[in-house]
Design goal:
The protein is of the alpha+beta class. The chain has one helix and eight strands. Strands 1-2-7-5-4 form a five-stranded antiparallel beta sheet, with no helix packed on it. The chain has a three-stranded antiparallel beta sheet with strand order 6-3-8, with no helix packed on it.
Length: 194
């Protein structure tokens, strides 16, 4: 009878140990949660037990990004927006949102021309037209044009809409080749403020 009673109390204690952290987690208090379980053993007995662990990275940076799906370039350049919203926990973590140009090659861009000479190029078959990408500064002027991939284009530390400009550098459109295609691929992520 004593063994059954001890086993029942042990099972009840284990149930309490697994319930207590769950209830305390709802309060979202960091550290050791209220409640404890005490086992008294006699002799060379072995007791197994578990501890419920919970972790929530409450200060994890979050953000949303909105960009246009496509654009029709104008001869004198086109401003393109990047809108970052719902930013949380950037300053607390000494972080910012970084927008970089990963590359400028569409999936159908000719592979044998994916080299330094053909970065930032529109194409029509195997003919190419260079263009430039410049960040728009807070005073409405434009910063230096990007010259390589993985260069930072725009940065955000809070909700904002910022712009960059895409400008064709040559006018090679003719009746036989009036349309040129291209693509800009981005990497958007969280970086450490230096």
């Amino acid at each position: 009878m004593k063994k059954k009673l001890a086993a029942s109390m042990f099972a009840l204690a284990l149930a309490a140990a697994t319930i207590a952290p769950t209830v305390a987690h709802a309060e979202k208090k960091p550290g050791i949660q209220d409640g404890s379980v005490l086992w008294k053993t006699t002799g060379n007995t072995k007791t197994d037990f578990g501890l419920s662990l919970n972790y929530e990275d409450a200060l994890k940076p979050t953000y949303s990004v909105q960009v246009p799906q496509s654009l029709q370039m104008q001869e004198d350049g086109t401003d393109v927006y990047v809108k970052v919203s719902n930013t949380k926990n950037l300053a607390e973590n000494n972080k910012y949102v970084s927008v970089k140009v990963r590359d400028t090659w569409a999936t159908n861009f000719p592979k044998k021309y994916r080299d330094d000479d053909h970065k930032y190029n529109l194409y029509c078959g195997y003919d190419f037209m260079k263009y430039k990408v410049e960040p728009k500064l807070s005073d409405s002027s434009y910063g230096p044009a990007l010259t390589d991939f993985n260069q930072e284009l725009l940065t955000f530390t809070e909700d904002a809409t910022k712009y960059y400009r895409v400008t064709p550098l040559e006018d090679t459109a003719t009746n036989s080749k009036p349309y040129w295609w291209g693509q800009i691929n981005f990497t958007i992520g969280v970086e450490n403020i230096k």
